[in-house]
Amino acid sequence: VAATQPSTNWHLKENAREHHTSKFSSEELIVRRGQAFTITFNGTERPEQNLIFIAETGPKPSKATKTLATFDISSTVSKEGWSAVLQSSSSNSVSISISSPHNAVIGRYRLSVQKGSSSPASLGTFVLLFNPWSSGDDVFMPNKAECEEYVLEEFGIIFAGNKNHISSFGWNFGQFQGDILDICLSIMDRSLYYRQDPVTDVSHRHDPRYLGRVLSAMVNANDDQGVVLGNWSGKYEGGKNPSSWTGSGEILQSWKKSGFKPVKYGQCWVFAAVLTTVLRCLGIPTRAITNFSSAHDADGNLRVDEFYDAEGNHLERGSDSVWNFHVWNESWFTRNDLGPSYSGWQVLDATPQEQSGGIYQCGPASRHAVKEGEVDLDYDVTFVFAEVNADCMYWNYDSATGKKNLIFSKSTEIGASISTKAVGRDSRVDVTSDYKYEEGSAKERDIFKKARKKLGLEDKFDPTAPKLEEIEQKPDISGKFKVAGSLEVGKDLNLLLVLENLQPDAKTVNVNMTAWSTLYTRRRINQIWKDSISVTLAPKEEKQFPIKIKYPEYQQQLTTDKSIQVTALCHVEDGIQVLVKRNITLDNPAIDIQVLGEAKVDKEVVVEVAFTNPIDVEVKDCVLQVEGSDLLQGILELRIPPLKASETSSTKFKLIPSEAGPKHLLVNFSCDKFADIKTFKVINVIN
């Protein structure tokens, strides 16, 4: 006899409160593994007798792959598998507490109940997630404040700019909004691993190490039609400029709406932010990390080569590069494959830079392994080690003869001010010392040598016995660029070139200077300025040479990354060349947000955004973009009339907050002269 369909009460509110899933806005039960949840259902008489529950997930559930569990009512919670404990029963309904194991496969489950020999009756579906609050889980995070930040916080801060001048902007991760959870589940079902072997893929979904690696591949579009298509060309036709996004929600929604076509376009922080959203949504503690002067060592020799011509122009030669900054992720979980000292924060990187195992994926690389130079451990520790530790070699290259001369090398250039957002505060925390020992210390050099040895590199380039062209001679002069005045888009750029004669006799120096607009990857886009001077320096003399690059000179050439590379190649008569360089990132003008009145749940509140045009020409095509989890649905886009010189625009709009607490409103303002001026404001919403 077929059983009648029982009706199920999932106790959504109570279960969500117990399982830290209240922020999801779902009609479906969402719970965390290794922890009990309660359901009540009717349609069974004398329920405590011979009831069997069936929980199953994936396309072909089986006990062997741990994607199918059958369990009956017992008096205690099982240590190993699934279990059901009777809470209460009446003549026609029964309340059951169901527990899953700490290492259960995560995802959407179908739950049914079978009485005696009748066929099973469906109770419905629920979603099972990782549980950082539970000590048996691989993602267990003992510090509750860190769980709040790295799993439940929907707002983040991403650090950018360069190591001399760190800037930051807000990001709306939005992992609990709308159907983001469903989109995250469908990302897993579209991976190459799932397509090749769905049964095995689903059976591995208990392991954060496996999922982290798979999702690092799926967030970029390479190989698998993943979520975001990268573009580092400086031209973004047919899509959105990577610097214009303010949150992950719009990106993930677009991917789903387009029938899972990659979203155009992303750069490193976009990949990292989307991966943060996906992993936090699934319950893996995750944060975004920015590494300044980040090496991309394409040939795996822990060395980055940069080439310059006689004019001081940075040449696009070789596949190594150094980026002003690079953003990746850290996720928190145990490394049972490596041992306890390698557990904790693991580096994952969804930006498609180099292939790993034939696919654009990176990690998880244990942060501890990176610090200790254990480059032979899984996964991709060599690549991450180079990002924070590679040595820099600067060459003068003559394209006519193909000859190269080493100008100088530097072992302290790469991997500076490694940054992430603080727990519970909107400020920066420096985590450089978690990635490497202090620059210049004996320990740091020892680790570098250890890594080279493990990679079998000690013969190829030994700093103590260099080949002829790699002998570094002592320069006669030293130089640096100093910034004089503010670094702001719309203002003239004032620099000083400071040259010092290190020798006891006079030196004549011919200096070729250039300034180029670049992307944050230091890829040159447009030449802005060039000049050459000839100077004589008296013995031990220091001289300063002012450089002014006017706003109209650079305005047309500037990229939306607002970065400029200035170089001076100094040819010392009868001496060796000296390269002086500086990467400069300009700040956008400010934008101001005011909340007019008190913000209350489900009540309208007016917000005013003001922008003053700081330049002496009209700005047009002005657009204001606003978003914020629990403050408004989706994204609000407002067009603003043109602004004359020094004119201020004031734009008002209404919000209806849906939840109490501190909420972040993100604003992005663009016009024809200024791209993506970003700011955020904390709004304290009361009930």
From TrEMBL:
Record carries keyword Calcium: yes
Coiled-coil spans in chain: none
Binding site for Ca(2+): N389, D391, E439, E444
Domain of life: Eukaryota
Cofactor binding summary note: Binds 1 Ca(2+) ion per subunit.
Pfam families for this protein: Transglut_C (PF00927), Transglut_core (PF01841), Transglut_N (PF00868)
Cofactor field: Ca(2+)
Transglutaminase-like domain residues: 260-352
Its EC number(s): 2.3.2.13
Metal-binding listed as a keyword: yes
EC class name: transferase
Database matches in PANTHER family: PROTEIN-GLUTAMINE GAMMA-GLUTAMYLTRANSFERASE (PTHR11590), PROTEIN-GLUTAMINE GAMMA-GLUTAMYLTRANSFERASE E (PTHR11590:SF36)
Family: Belongs to the transglutaminase superfamily. Transglutaminase family.
Protein name per its UniProtKB record: protein-glutamine gamma-glutamyltransferase
Lineage: Eukaryota, Metazoa, Chordata, Craniata, Vertebrata
Gene coding for it: Tgm3
